Amino acid sequence: MGRGRPGAPRDVAVQGTGGSSAVSKCSAAARGYVRDRFLELLVGRRRRRRAPLVHRGYYVRTRAVDHCVQDFLLKTQSHPRTQILSLGAGFDSLYFRLKDMGLLSHTVVYEVDFPNVVCQKATLIKGIKELSALVGDAEGERIGATTFSGEDYKLLGVDLSELSKLQKALEEAGLDSEVPTLFLAEVVLTYMENSRSDALIQWAAEHFSQACFVLYEQMHPEDPFGRVMQQHFSQLNSTLQSLAQYPDHEAQRRRFLQKGWTECSVMDMNEFFTFCTPEDEQRRVQALEPFDEYEEWHLKCSHYFVLTAAKGMKSSWTPLLSNMTVPYGDGPVKVAGSITASVCGIHSEVAGLRRYGHHSALIKPDIILTTGGFGEEDGQHCRMRNFHVLIKHEGCWKAGGVKKENHGKRWGGRLYHTVSCLSNNLALVVGGRTSPSSAALGMLWLKFPESCNALDSDGITVELVDLQPVAEPAALRWRHTATEVMFRGEKYLFLYGGRSAMQPVLGDWYFLHTEELSCTAEHLEWPLMLHNHSSVFLPNEKELLLIGGGGNCFSFGTHLNPEPVSLSFSNILTSH
Predict the structure, then answer these.
(1) Beta pairing class for 481-487 and 460-466
(2) CA dihedral sign of residues 556, 560, 566, 572
(3) Number of Cα atoms under 13 Å in the Cβ half of residue 289
(4) What is the CA radius of gyration of the chain?
(5) What pLDDT is attached to residue 28?
């Protein structure tokens, strides 16, 4: 899928990204996200099952590209001939899907990639009857860079960074600069040096009288997700070269306008999914697999964009704007005051705060207990089974020891639960899950000494006590809230919302009467990734302590906030 100079190790690595992309698209098709029976023929034995988050990412990518391509074909159907030029096409199945749908009656598709990639694809097509039948009779001898040639399908083996060679190869293959032409580049130009990709964009605008361009790429390199994303591709020796100069969609829009395109629209993938995907299609996709990684999903979508540009078209070509309505706002947001943030350095060898999807509770005036979540434990990324204690001592937060007793199967390394401290020695755990497809884990007590010193060498002992199935239906949920309320002098827990294995959204609520449930048997990496964290409000200090947080960064890796952060609300609370 990417470009560089042939023969260099980087070129081999970049080609590998195209193969990996095809495997991911094939996995998404196998689960019903996209309808494409040709991908498995082109991928062959390389098929792998990907995670639901990856499936959704490749679904919205395919949906966006197909939306733009089909809009181009619809708007140009009155022309006797049109062209699609797919740059760095790899093992993509676009031609076969369009041909199978009967959408190429007057359109020729040209695909360009490295010569060895094109040769592999040509061999596959010739050897698979279902593919060769769609192409029809292929022309005989290879001519120049044209490795495979059918009546409406041409495969060219040429390096995109060599613009003069590319232009010559396309002219020899019959590409007509006077015919309406769609250029398509899915995560391709970003692997090229900016001077070379800019030259290609400008050449397309200047050389073709009626042209449209669809670009799908990454953006926002400087936040935690962007850094993990860049590191992932750098480790693959496939550096994303465009991000430094074109870090966001506005920079990309200016890039195209400055290179000769007369109109340009850009959407991130959150906007595309919301405004350009019908609601019934959204519901269909959401029902395909158990899924609750919505923060990671929206984060991934905010780091990819689809861009459309045009010049010389008889009517304006803006496929990204036709279905978009701008949400109505109530006016500017009023600023209540300022909040200062500072690093909470933890001087201890006790690990365990690099996690997300956990819960933190103030069990004593200066002691915070953190449980569950996903993070680093014993050198591995996993569901966290160990508890963690933070102690305020002489104005500083320190890590203390904690020992669990009776930690049977009921704990299970749960995520997205709540912990409510109900007395001097009891806290109630409600809900949580291990995987999105599993039933929630119900309730249990955490029992700890009424008076304790977490700085002792033995630390705090926390006993896990199973509950009888009292109010169990209320607890079979995760990603909910549990809020302590007082009514007529008695304490209740108000449980609201969340989701279950069967219901993606729960709108019910419960009041749990706590008496009936009594137990009888140094450097901060900015900006933070502010989701999946826990927080504890310290009323005496008028501070909010943020603990952990982070998430999966698509298929690139995981970001975990390294240290707790204290947010001071003294300015706001004093002014009100």
Answers:
(1) unpaired
(2) positive
(3) 20
(4) 28
(5) 93
542/337 Cα distance (integer angstroms):
14
Beta bridge partners of 260: none
Residue 428's CB is within 10 A of a number of other CB atoms, namely 23
Q: Does the N-terminal peptide bond of residue 9 adopt cis geometry, omega within 30 degrees of 0?
A: no
More confident residue, 2 or 145: 145
Dump pLDDT digits (tens) for 72-122.
Answer: 999 999 999 999 999 999 999 999 999 999 999 999 999 999 999 999 999
Higher pLDDT, 270 or 22: 270
Best CA proximity match to 440, nearest among 292, 294, 297, 551: 292
What gap in Å lies between CA 399 and CA 368, rounded to an integer?
Answer: 10
At 172, list the tokens.
């020899």
Q: What is the dihedral of CA 12, 161, 76, 277, to 10 degrees?
A: 50
Put the strands of the sheet holding 367-371 in their side by side order. Answer: 359-364, 367-371, 388-393, 396-400
pLDDT band, very low/low/confident/very high, at 331 (cuts 50, 70, 90): low
Interacting residues of 399 by C-beta distance below 8 A, sequence separation 6+: 346, 348, 350, 352, 353, 388, 389, 390, 391
- Determine the pLDDT at residue 342: 79
Tell me the whole-structure pTM to 2 decimals: 0.79
- Strand-pair category, 534-538 with 509-513: unpaired
How many other C-beta atoms are found inside a 10 Å radius of the C-beta of residue 8?
11
Q: Would you state the structure tokens that stand for residue 108, as one six-digit string? A: 């020729």
> Which amino acid, residue 401?
G
DSSP state of 333: P
H/E stretch holding 149 reads: strand 146-149
CA–CA distance, 113 with 236 (Å, rounded to integer)? 19
Give the pLDDT of residue 142.
65
Classified as helix, coil or strand, 519 is coil
Q: Which residue has the higher pLDDT, 138 or 211?
A: 211
Contact status, residue 352 vs residue 314, Cβ threshold 8 Å: no
Q: Is the pLDDT of residue 136 over 90?
A: no
370 beta partners: 360, 388
Provide the token pair at 514. Answer: 């706590």
pLDDT of 376 higher than 60 = yes
CA gap 364, 450 in Å, rounded: 9
Helix (H) / strand (E) containing 146: strand 146-149
Q: What is the pLDDT of residues 504-524, one digit of tens each?
A: 777 777 878 877 764 333 334
Tokens of 323: 């279905």
What's the pLDDT tens digit per position in 336-346?
Answer: 677 787 777 66
Whether cis (ω within 30° of 0) applies to the bond prior to 527 is yes
